[in-house]
UniProtKB/TrEMBL annotation:
Family classification: Belongs to the class I-like SAM-binding methyltransferase superfamily. RNA M5U methyltransferase family.
Coiled-coil regions listed in the entry: none
Binding site for S-adenosyl-L-methionine: 214, 243, 264, 318
Native species: Frisingicoccus caecimuris
Active site: 345
Protein name: 23S rRNA (Uracil1939-C5)-methyltransferase
The entry's keywords: Methyltransferase, S-adenosyl-L-methionine, Transferase
GO molecular function: rRNA (uridine-C5-)-methyltransferase activity
Length: 493
C-alpha cells in the first residue's frame, strides 16, 4: 500500500493506527508485539495475514448527528470524545454497508427525520448498524432511535429497500437511555426474519442484531482451524466452548469430538447457538446461558460431590477483551482438562491469564497470532496449553511388616482402597443396571429428573434453555424407584 492512500480522518477516528504502514510491516509489528508478551512461554508461530487486507469488516456502525450547518452527518466518535467525525467510506469496512449508511443519511433528510442530540436528549435517529454475511450475501440493517415513535417508518423502509433490494432484514431498535451503548433493550423486526445467516468452515450460522459475530470472516476460518488443530482432537473428547457467542467454534469442533457444551452470557446469542446446532443437524452439542466463571465453579463443585459428573478433556475459551476471571480459571485448574485452547483478541489480558495458568500447572505449547484486524493495532491469538506432567520423583525407602518404623501390610491395603478413584457412574451404566434388574428401559431425561428432584447436579442432562422448549413427561413411580435403586447401588445417594 502506498503512503498516499491515507484515510483523511484516521487521526481523529483513531481506529487505523497503521495507516500508511505497508501491510507486510504491520504483520511484523504485530508478530513482534505478541512475541514480546508471550515469547517467554513458548514458540510463536508466524502470524497469518490477509491476501487483501481491505474492506474486511462485515459489521459497520455509524452514529448520526448534524454538523454546524445543520446537515445530517454519520460516522464515528472522535477518539476519546462524543464528537461525531463524518465518514463516507472506510478502507476496512464493507463497501455496501457504507453505501447503505450513506443512503440512510439521504433518506433521513428527505423524510425530515431529526438526529438525536446527546446533550439535550432531543431528536430521533441515533445509530445505524449494518451486518453483512459475506458468504450468503444477506444484509441486516438496524436503525436505532431514541423513541419507539418513528414517523413514516413504513415508507422509510420501502424507500430503503427500493435502493437496496439485497437487504434481507431490517430491525428497529429503541435506545432511550443516555448511554454510550449503541443498542437498546427493545427491538422490533420491521422487515425480514430479524437475523442473517452466514457460512463459516462449512457450517451455517444465524446472527441476530445483538449477538457477537467475528468481524472478519476470512480470517475467522483461519483462526478456528488453528484453534481446532491445536487442540489435537481424537474424537473422544468432552469439550467446553466457553464464551461461545452463537456457538461457532464449538459447532465447527463438534465433528471432531464426542460432546461439546457451549457457555455464553448473552441470551440472544444462546438462542442463535441453539438454532445453529439444529440448522447444522448437530446432536452432540448443547448450550448453557450463564456467566462462564459461574458455570465452571458449579461444574467443579458438582464433580467434587458426584463422581458421575463428566469432566472436560478440553476447554476452548474465547473471552472478551478483558480476559477471563479468577472464578473461571481456578475452577478450570481444579478440573484439570488435559488441554486448554485460549483464543484472545487482547494479548495483554491473554498474557495475564496464561501466566496464572502456568503457575497452576499448565504449560503453554504454542502461540499462533492471526491478523483479524489489518490497519489497526489489534491482533487475535490462539494459545495451546497442556496440563504439566509431574516434574520428577523422589525415592523413599519403606520397610513393610510388624514392629517399630515398619508399615503393616493390612494398613496399606486399607489405605489403597480408600485412595482408589471412584468409578465414574454414567447414565448408560444406570440404564443398564435398571434394564438388567427390572427388565425395562428408562430414558436419560427420567434419570436426570430424579437426580434433579434429589438435589443432585445436572451437568450431564440436556441444557436448561433447550429443556424449556420440550413438552415435559415424567417417569412413573415404578421407574422413579428403579432409578433411585440404581443411584443407591452406585453410591450416588
Ligand atoms: C470474543 S467473543 C467470542 C465469541 C465466539 N467464541 C466467537 O468466536 O464468535 C466473547 C463472547 O463472550 C461473551 N461473554 C462476555 N462475558 C461473558 C461471561 N462472563 N460469561 C460468558 N460469556 C461471556 C460475549 O457475549 C461474547 O459472545
Amino acid at each position: 500500500m502506498s503512503k498516499t492512500e491515507i484515510c483523511p480522518v484516521h487521526k481523529k477516528c483513531g481506529g487505523c493506527r497503521y495507516q500508511g504502514v505497508p501491510y507486510e510491516e504491520q504483520l511484523k509489528i504485530k508478530e513482534k508485539m505478541v512475541g514480546k508478551l508471550m515469547g517467554k512461554y513458548c514458540k510463536i508461530y508466524p502470524i497469518a495475514g490477509m491476501e487483501d487486507p481491505k474492506h474486511y469488516r462485515n459489521k459497520v456502525h455509524a452514529v448520526f448527528d448534524r454538523d454546524r450547518k445543520g446537515n445530517i452527518i454519520s460516522g464515528v466518535y472522535k477518539e476519546g470524545t462524543h464528537q461525531v467525525i463524518p465518514v463516507e467510506s472506510c478502507m476496512i469496512e464493507d463497501v455496501l454497508a457504507d453505501e447503505i449508511i450513506g443512503t440512510i443519511r439521504k433518506l433521513a433528510k428527505s423524510f425530515k427525520i431529526k438526529t438525536y442530540d446527546e446533550d439535550t436528549g432531543y431528536g430521533l435517529l441515533r445509530h445505524v448498524l449494518v451486518k453483512r454475511a459475506f458468504a450468503t450475501g444477506q444484509v441486516m440493517v438496524v436503525i436505532v432511535t431514541a423513541s419507539p415513535v418513528f414517523p413514516s417508518r413504513n415508507n422509510f423502509v420501502k424507500a430503503l429497500l427500493k435502493e437496496y433490494p439485497q437487504i434481507t432484514t431490517i430491525i428497529h431498535n429503541i435506545n432511550d437511555k443516555r448511554t454510550s451503548m449503541v443498542l437498546g433493550e427493545r427491538e422490533k423486526v420491521i422487515y425480514g426474519k430479524g437475523y442473517i445467516e452466514d457460512m463459516l468452515c462449512g457450517k451455517k450460522f444465524r446472527i441476530s442484531a445483538k449477538s457477537f459475530y467475528q468481524v472478519n470472516p476470512v480470517q475467522t476460518e483461519i483462526l478456528y482451524k488453528k484453534a481446532i488443530d491445536a487442540a489435537g482432537f481424537t474424537g473422544k473428547e468432552y469439550v467446553i466452548d466457553a464464551y461461545c457467542g452463537i456457538g461457532t467454534i464449538g459447532i465447527v469442533a463438534s465433528d471432531h469430538v464426542d460432546t461439546v457444551v457451549g457457555v455464553e452470557l448473552n441470551r440472544d446469542a444462546v438462542r442463535d447457538a441453539i438454532g445453529n446446532a439444529k440448522a447444522n443437524n448437530i446432536k452432540n452439542i448443547r448450550f448453557v446461558c450463564e456467566d462462564a466463571g459461574r458455570f465452571m465453579v458449579r461444574l467443579a463443585d458438582a464433580a467434587r460431590r458426584d463422581s458421575s459428573v463428566r469432566l472436560p478433556d478440553v476447554v476452548l475459551m474465547d473471552p472478551p477483551r478483558s480476559g477471563s476471571d479468577e472464578a473461571f480459571l481456578s475452577s478450570l485448574v481444579k478440573m484439570s482438562p488435559k488441554t486448554v485452547v485460549y483464543v484472545s483478541c487482547n494479548p495483554v489480558t491473554l498474557e495475564r491469564d496464561v501466566k496464572w495458568l502456568e503457575e497452576k500447572g499448565y504449560k503453554a505449547e504454542g502461540v499462533w497470532p492471526v491478523d483479524m484486524f489489518p490497519f489497526t493495532e489489534h491482533v487475535e491469538t490462539v494459545v495451546l496449553l497442556s496440563h504439566k506432567k509431574p516434574d520428577g520423583h523422589i525415592n523413599v525407602k519403606v520397610e513393610f511388616g510388624e514392629g517399630e518404623g515398619k508399615v503393616p501390610l493390612d494398613n496399606i491395603a486399607k489405605r489403597a482402597e480408600s485412595y482408589k478413584p471412584k468409578e465414574r457412574v454414567t447414565y448408560k451404566m444406570i440404564k443398564e443396571y435398571i434394564e438388567a434388574k427390572y427388565g425395562f428401559k428408562v430414558h436419560t431425561a427420567y434419570i436426570a429428573e430424579v437426580k434433579r428432584d434429589l438435589g443432585l447436579p445436572m451437568y450431564d442432562a440436556p441444557n436448561a434453555v433447550e429443556e424449556l422448549k420440550q413438552p415435559k413427561k415424567h417417569p412413573t413411580a415404578e421407574k422413579v424407584e428403579a432409578i433411585k435403586d440404581a443411584l443407591k447401588h452406585y453410591k450416588i445417594i
